[in-house]
Amino acid sequence: MKLNQNGLLIVLSGPSGVGKGTVRKALFESEGHNFTYSISMTTRSPRVGEVEGSDYYFVSKEEFEQRIKDGKFLEYAEFVGNYYGTPIDKVEQNIEEGREVVLEIEVEGARQVKQKKPDAVFIFIAPPSFEALHDRLRRRGTEKAEVIKERLDKARRELMLINDYDYIVINDDVNNAADRIRAIIRAEHARTKRSAEGYIELLEESNHDNTK
Amino acid sequence: MKLNQNGLLIVLSGPSGVGKGTVRKALFESEGHNFTYSISMTTRSPRVGEVEGSDYYFVSKEEFEQRIKDGKFLEYAEFVGNYYGTPIDKVEQNIEEGREVVLEIEVEGARQVKQKKPDAVFIFIAPPSFEALHDRLRRRGTEKAEVIKERLDKARRELMLINDYDYIVINDDVNNAADRIRAIIRAEHARTKRSAEGYIELLEESNHDNTK
């Protein structure tokens, strides 16, 4: 019996190289899941094969900046001269339609979401050790030593923000991590703050039927 | 990877007749579980076959009242002239030894535990409807109509306290309810407030090893 018909907004964040993407992928391979992700809006040009509304929403810089002013992003960032952001309206629509919206974003983006949606579920995907993070960044093979060092330093700073999150999930094994996140989502649906109102309504209905 | 080695204190409560006992039993039938329950202390006389330290701790009324004064109970109540209580020391010992201590208690007892252990996990086992609760109380067969009416009235009052609980688990099906509680326990272990400290320690150790 489901008490709240709305989906949850689930924010997966954590340092670069921790494996947020693979954990998110494992989560979306769950049987009978009800997860959806949010399509980002960007000002960069579509690459060959990219489809509007499926890969990204492509807009002009002017439109993006107007949307920032209008508070229409859950979070946004500038990267190599282009904007990337999460449109708030699509997220809200999915939640109201009962889907669990999973955002896999950087720590700075998560900070922005926390300000707009403090009731979202904030999960910090954490490395089992700095060495493991170092290994992962190195194994990507595309990064130079100084870039790796920079990322590790950034990861150290990001770990200071861990107390802003509701949960810590260590990515020691991707399936374990996904399992833990599934348990968290199940538990969050049972939280009194999300379900008490729905439960009381349910009882009142059953009570009403009773006195007919 | 487990971040906090301590067990949790899990309080299962809810109205009389909701099926707390059967849910607790299903929980204890989980594979590879690490649950333990707390043995109550009482001033009533042992019945034939009851074993001290296994069924109850049997003490005199004087000893029980001294223990109340010394704050040695997580919760206690008087019932038909006898005291029943949960000794705090055994609970703490089990938690420190890494066991999940499950207390299946009345709403008034849960209120007392909340004052002493606000960090415990408070789960309200809720009936799917008043009708279902009525049916369960009637099916017990031992209770007279006016006793059933009294219990339903009490259940209505107890439902007002639902917001003091962390979670609401509807006992629509005992195995579903036990599953949800298992997910809640798993999620609670990942909560930042319980695991951040352990995680930071872990990282510092791995960092230390790294620089050797």
Compressed to H and E, one letter per element, the order of chain A equals EHEEEHEEHEHEHHEHH
* Nearest-integer average pLDDT of chain A: 91
CATH topology of the domain at 9-37 and 100-211 in chain A, anyone?
Rossmann fold
Q: Nearest-angstrom radius of gyration of chain A?
A: 19 Å
Please report the total strand number of chain A as a whole number. 9
Class based on secondary structure composition and strand pairing of chain A:
alpha/beta
> What is the helix tally of chain A?
8
Q: Gap between N and C termini of chain A, in Å? A: 24 Å
What's the architecture of the domain at 9-37 and 100-211 in chain A, going by CATH?
3-Layer(aba) Sandwich
Indicate the overall shape of chain A.
globular
Strand content of chain A: 15-25%
How can the largest sheet of chain A be summarized?
Answer: 5 strands, parallel
Describe the protein's architecture and organization.
2 copies of one chain form a homodimer. Chain A has 212 residues and is an alpha/beta fold. Chain A has a domain at 9-37 and 100-211: P-loop containing nucleotide triphosphate hydrolases (Rossmann fold), CATH 3.40.50. In chain A, 47% of the residues lie in helices and 19% in strands. Chain A has helices at residues 20-28, 61-69, 88-96, 107-116, 130-139, 145-159, 174-190, 192-211, and strands at residues 9-13, 35-37, 41-42, 57-58, 73-79, 82-87, 100-104, 121-126, 167-170. A 5-stranded parallel beta sheet of chain A has the order 2-7-1-8-9, with helices on both faces. Chain A has a 4-stranded mixed beta sheet with strand order 4-3-6-5. In chain A, helix 1 packs across helix 7 and helix 5 (130-139) runs antiparallel to helix 6 (145-159).
